[in-house]
Amino acid sequence: MAAEASSELLVELMRRMHERFDKIDSALSEVRSEMNAMRGHMVASQSDIHNIYGAFGRIDHRLDRIERRLELRELAEPHRPYDSGTSA
User: Fold this and answer.
1) What is the pLDDT of residues 20-55, one digit of tens each?
2) Angle 8-14-19 (CA atoms, 0-180°, nearest 5)?
3) Sign of the CA dihedral 15, 16, 22, 25?
4) d(CA 29, CA 37)
5) What is the number of other CB atoms lying within 10 angstroms of the CB of residue 41?
6) Distance, CA of 41 to CA of 33 (rounded, Å)
7) Any residues with CB less than 8 A from the CB of 22 and at least 6 apart, and which?
8) pTM for this one?
9) CA-to-CA distance for 43 and 80, rounded, in angstroms?
10) How far, in Å, CA of 32 to CA of 30, rounded?
11) What is the secondary structure of 18-84 as a DSSP string?
């Protein structure tokens, strides 16, 4: 009878351990899916930052071109000497 009781105890212990392992497996699966979602958000954020840097680069290039044009135009315009006392 003692062998039967200890056998039943072992079976019950194994059943409980199996239930706990199932819960752990389920929780681990949930953590993995959350990690994959976070990874996706991180990739999207990196892509957004890359696009912003690209836009800033294009704006910077356009600003350089505008500044070069303005400097060329200023050199082509006739300059009058500065006269602080007279009005035109």
Assistant:
1) 999 999 999 999 999 999 999 999 999 999 999 999
2) 130
3) negative
4) 13
5) 10
6) 12
7) none
8) 0.56
9) 57
10) 5
11) HHHHHHHHHHHHHHHHHHHHHHHHHHHHHHHHHHHHHHHHHHHHHHHHHHHHHHHHHHHSPPPPP-S
